[in-house]
Design a protein that fits this description.
Elements lengths: L15 E8 L2 E4 L4 H10 L4 E7 L3 H11 L3 H8 L6 E5 L2 E12 L4 E11 L3 E7 L6 H8 L2 H4 L3 H14 L1 H21 L4 H31 L1 H4 L3 H81 L14 H22 L4
Parallel strand pairs: 3-7
Antiparallel strand pairs: 1-2, 1-3, 4-5, 5-6, 6-7
Length: 352
């Protein structure tokens, strides 16, 4: 049986993942529809409604907006994914956007989800865009601690913030392992490592966009402790979450810098390897050129006597020096002189 707060597969896709009513920190009802939830909450105004939605329709969000007086700008944002993390207050209602993350071991990549929350005096609405985060554990945790849940929607908000931030820890560990592997691949000369560095750098940009705004959001909540009379237990809770998210944000910043340094080192190593290959090619070309010079020199030397011998070997009756008694010695001397001259010339040019 699936967890009630786990977003369903796209093929099933009921929008209402879970709707529950609580009084004094204990669940009193689990309505099947939004209309039933509204009716029961009107019957028990001292209670609190916790409604979980997964990619709701426009009509469903508008019915929630009409029931709980949600601001139209917040509703418009909740209908669309790809919002930046933020916290906005519309009267008595907080609108919060969070970016959750999870590390996929098989693909060795980071998957990001988006969660929108409406937090009012007697209700909390979560709108999922993506698989993460899984809020079933948050609901179980809160229901096992009625005293904390009795503090109202604000307590649930802080619990969800804590779950999202705690979910960053496995991602940080996975990314650290990836960076260690990349460093090994860089110095091992793996040609595919540049693509992996680039892809992980893009993920760290997304991770940074998810974590960095949370620091300011949490400090903004802490600044309103006195104004909004936040319970002391929740104050301690929120300060702990703020410490964790600050630490995570610093780690992500460090990862981006490390990847930048690794990319620089990899580019240097690739350049050095290319230079070495170019030198090797140049040396091979030089050696080949020297061999060609030697072959060409000997070919020219051997060509000279061949030319003389070919001319005097022609079968003509009338030919200068043909019947000259010194013709043969002259031809031999001529060939030797030409060959010797060419040999001396090529030797001086270091061709031989």
């Amino acid at each position: 049986m699936p967890d009630p707060d786990t977003p369903p597969p796209a093929t099933e896709r009921p929008s209402v993942v879970q709707a529950s009513l609580y009084r004094e920190g204990r669940r009193v009802a689990s309505p099947a529809t939004l209309a039933d939830t509204f009716r029961r909450l009107r019957e028990h105004p001292e209670g609190m409604a916790w409604i979980g939605l997964h990619r709701p329709t426009e009509a469903e969000l508008h019915s929630l907006a009409a029931e709980f007086d949600l601001h139209e700008l917040a509703v418009e944002d909740a209908l669309e994914a790809h919002q930046r993390p933020k916290l906005e207050r519309y009267g008595d209602t907080l609108f919060v956007v969070l970016r959750a993350a999870r590390y996929l071991d098989a693909q060795e990549e980071v998957d990001f989800g988006e969660l929108h929350l409406f937090v009012g005096p007697d209700f909390l609405i979560t709108v999922h865009h993506g698989a993460a985060p899984d809020l079933s554990s948050v609901r179980r945790r809160m229901e096992e601690n009625p005293d904390l849940l009795a503090l109202g929607p604000e307590a649930v908000l802080y619990a969800i913030l804590d779950a999202v931030v705690d979910g960053y820890a496995p991602v940080v560990a996975g990314v650290q392992n990836d960076i260690d592997e990349i460093e090994t691949e860089v110095f091992g000369g793996d040609p595919a490592v540049s693509r992996r560095i680039y892809e992980l750098s893009r993920e760290m940009v997304e991770f940074q966009r998810a974590t960095r705004p949370l620091v300011g959001m949490l400090h903004g909540l802490m600044a309103g402790f006195t104004k909004y009379g936040t319970d002391e237990e929740l104050q301690r809770y929120l300060r702990d979450v703020a410490d964790h998210v600050t630490h995570t944000s610093e780690r992500v910043d460090g990862f981006r810098q490390a990847l930048t340094d690794i990319l620089t080192v990899n580019a240097t190593l690739v350049t050095q390897q290319q230079n070495a290959e170019m030198r090797a090619l140049a040396e091979a070309g030089f050696e080949q050129n020297e061999e060609i010079k030697k072959i060409s020199s000997w070919a020219a030397i051997l060509f000279a006597p061949t030319l003389v011998g070919t001319i005097y070997g022609m079968n003509f009756d009338t030919m200068p020096e043909l019947h000259w008694s010194a013709g043969y010695p002259f031809a031999i001397v001529l060939m030797a002189a030409v060959c010797t001259s060419l040999y001396v010339i090529f030797k001086r040019k270091d061709w031989l």
